[in-house]
Write a sequence for this structure.
DNA sequence: CGTGCTGTTGAGGACGATCAATGACGGTGG
DNA sequence: CCACCGTCATTGATCGTCCTCAACAGCACG
């Protein structure tokens, strides 16, 4: 009745725990306390809306599995994707802190997802009893802002090819950061277009260019990275804006090597 | 020697106090405590760098008077302005929470400014002793993110005219929010171009169009709003993303009236 | 076996960039 | 006080990236 509450299954919250640790929430006790307040909801279908904007029961949503995106529809029914979201990412922090904002911004599942929710009421209590938690959420918001700045810069200043390459690089890096090593980026060309401010037609041509240039694999109907290095080079990608731990330090080396050549 | 520390002059910190109140920092005691840690530095000249990125003494900077912008230079020495900053705005929160990030992003004074600083060390203490403060800063970061999302949407999806109009609208609204009623927007066409991802030449033509359309005054060499309503209409401006209190509710009415026509 | 979404290809056109030159203004130093 | 310089604003011409429109193929879905 209270939204399919379930006993937390082993592993279901791993992504969230990983996220909090990357946000420097040091206290294991704080972490465990938060996790207890998470209600899990499995099986959100692709295309489905993750954040229920009409529900009176206000709650924070966190993605536990799958890929989603935060986006907004415009008057002319074009769509701007602000950010992609991966397991561990908070979907609607803004609705907690600034509920007046972004009425029309929604979060939609791109693949099959499962999500966790924390009631805003519970969050109020958690934050007042565990101040460190607030700092972690704050950090999460600043990371989101950093990603937005990078995207702004890309859309505003770079040509279509490096722009698309950058977006793919970001997704690859973020997937790796949560230990998903697959070279396949689970988003469509339509999504790339809506995220990069380009037409689908043009994105398609750019993707083909990237395939010819050896950055993406020749396999059609999917965005599969053939060479991370080549892609990063074409994108002029500097992943520092993602504030990632060292687990990806190989990227930096790659980039420096390319810079020399 | 420690950065021209001064006794806080009457009124110098008003902008900051106003800001904290708008961020829902309710406790007057908390507010007064923070203000005591602010060191004031007057007379930053236009073009000067506000955030000293090389100083070993890490500190948070807040704008107290004047206009500044957060921006980044690219390889091809084009410049992207992320946000404009007004009295009360925090200039480099990101450098406190995620110091690895945005090494190359800098804050530059656009007009004569005065700034306040709080040492990171002091901030650590303040935050641990006044948890509410952290929530206020968090809110500030989310507001910044909201502004970035709106800008992203504008640059990505709108033509040059509404884009420029939107940026001007935003500046006007933000100035009004801090009780600066002047119709003159204190930024140059160059700044508009760098913020909107357009060439200066094109911005100039758009500005002239906006003048012909009655949105800006005919006065050359300055961006002076002739009709807020006309401008908001051309921009399709919905200021909710700025999360402003009711002091500007007249705007909303204006927009609704225009929507009917 | 249609229907819909994604991907692909071609042709034409538009919006905005780039290049180039000039004027106006403010500040600086001789 | 004036000559000089840099920044900002303005105008004209050309060019190119990317959009739009249009059509179709493949695949997944019911």
């Amino acid at each position: 009745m209270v939204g399919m509450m379930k006993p937390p299954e082993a592993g279901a919250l791993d992504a969230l725990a990983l996220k909090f640790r990357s946000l420097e929430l040091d206290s294991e006790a704080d972490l465990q306390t938060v996790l207890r307040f998470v209600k899990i909801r499995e099986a959100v279908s692709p295309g489905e809306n993750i954040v229920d904007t009409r529900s009176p029961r206000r709650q924070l949503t966190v993605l536990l599995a799958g890929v989603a995106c935060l986006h907004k529809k415009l008057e002319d029914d074009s769509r701007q994707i602000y950010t992609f979201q991966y397991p561990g990412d908070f979907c609607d922090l803004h609705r907690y802190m600034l509920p007046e904002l972004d009425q029309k911004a929604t979060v939609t599942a791109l693949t099959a997802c499962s999500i966790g929710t924390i009631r805003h009421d519970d969050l109020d209590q958690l934050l007042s009893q565990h101040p460190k938690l607030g700092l972690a959420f704050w950090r999460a918001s600043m990371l989101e802002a950093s990603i937005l700045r990078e995207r702004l810069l890309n859309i505003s200043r770079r040509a279509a090819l490096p722009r698309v390459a950058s977006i793919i690089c970001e997704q690859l890096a973020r997937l790796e950061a949560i230990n998903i090593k697959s070279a396949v980026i689970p988003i469509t060309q339509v999504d790339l277009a809506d995220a990069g401010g380009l037409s689908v037609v043009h994105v398609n041509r750019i993707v083909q260019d990237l395939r010819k240039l050896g950055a993406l694999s020749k396999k059609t109907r999917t965005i599969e990275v053939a060479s991370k290095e080549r892609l990063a080079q074409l994108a002029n990608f500097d992943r520092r804006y993602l504030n990632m731990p060292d687990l990806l330090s190989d990227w930096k080396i790659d980039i420096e090597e390319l810079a020399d050549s």
The longest strand of chain B covers residues 59-65. Chain B touches chain A at residues 72, 74-75, 78, 80, 82, 93-94, 97-98, 100-103, 105, 127-128, 131, 134-135, 137-139, 141-146, 148-149, 151-153, 155-157, 196-197, 236, 240-241, 243 (CB under 8 Å). Residues 1-6 of chain B have pLDDT under 50 and may be disordered. The radius of gyration of chain B is 19 Å.
